[in-house]
């Protein structure tokens, strides 16, 4: 039990600091609030404000979930699928679902160590769901509670098509494993078959562009 607790704790830190590193890479400051309010990481545009005093403050709020799974693809049989689950308190879902300046970031690490980089240290895939999308999939039945568990479960399938040029993609599914409305997040690194909101759901830069576009007044 203690080992499971520490594994979960350190895996959680891994995702949180990975997100913070990516935020710094995108020119933002990042911090971890000392109190557990349902938000793991907050980003601020301190650099821009210091360089240009007229710059308006910009704040984003993130919950981070991390999973470790086996993901592999056989050369003799292309295509792959893996299902990962993330646990959230109902109050966390309520908090995140209020607006687009809040998002759930999910990091998945591959326990198979046969990739070009060390798959234990580099995330296999990362994807995000902003507050408006979380509310959409919640209404579609994405969050479910397993018997005996106090938290809600969010299940996501990671898929790679069998054809040679197929790209990985993430798909939110319900408790029966069926796709929920709004649960398709587009493909990783591909221009075809975008998500319904046409956002890049696999990078911090993609989230920032999407959130900032919503905050920009129409001309």
Characterize this entry briefly:
This protein is an alpha+beta fold and 219 residues long.
Please characterize this protein's 3D structure:
The chain is 26% helix and 30% strand. It is α+β, with helices and mostly antiparallel strands and 219 residues long. The chain is globular. The mean pLDDT is 89.
Tally of structural domains: 1
Q: Report the strand count.
A: 9
* Rough outline: globular
- Average pLDDT confidence is 89
The secondary-structure class comes to: alpha+beta
Radius of gyration (Å) = 18 Å
Span between N and C termini? Answer: 56 Å
User: What portion of the residues fall into strands of 2 or more residues?
Assistant: 25-35%
**Number of helices, counting only DSSP H or I runs of 4 residues or more:** 5
Q: Output the strand order for the largest sheet.
A: 1-2-3-5-6
Q: Keywords, please?
A:
219 residues; alpha+beta; five-stranded mixed beta sheet; four-stranded antiparallel beta sheet; 5 helices
SSE diagram, text form:
Elements: H1 2-25, E1 29-31, E2 41-44, H2 46-51, E3 59-69, E4 80-88, H3 90-96, E5 102-110, E6 125-130, H4 131-139, E7 152-160, E8 169-173, E9 179-187, H5 204-215
Parallel strand pairs: 3-5
Antiparallel strand pairs: 1-2, 2-3, 4-7, 5-6, 7-8, 8-9
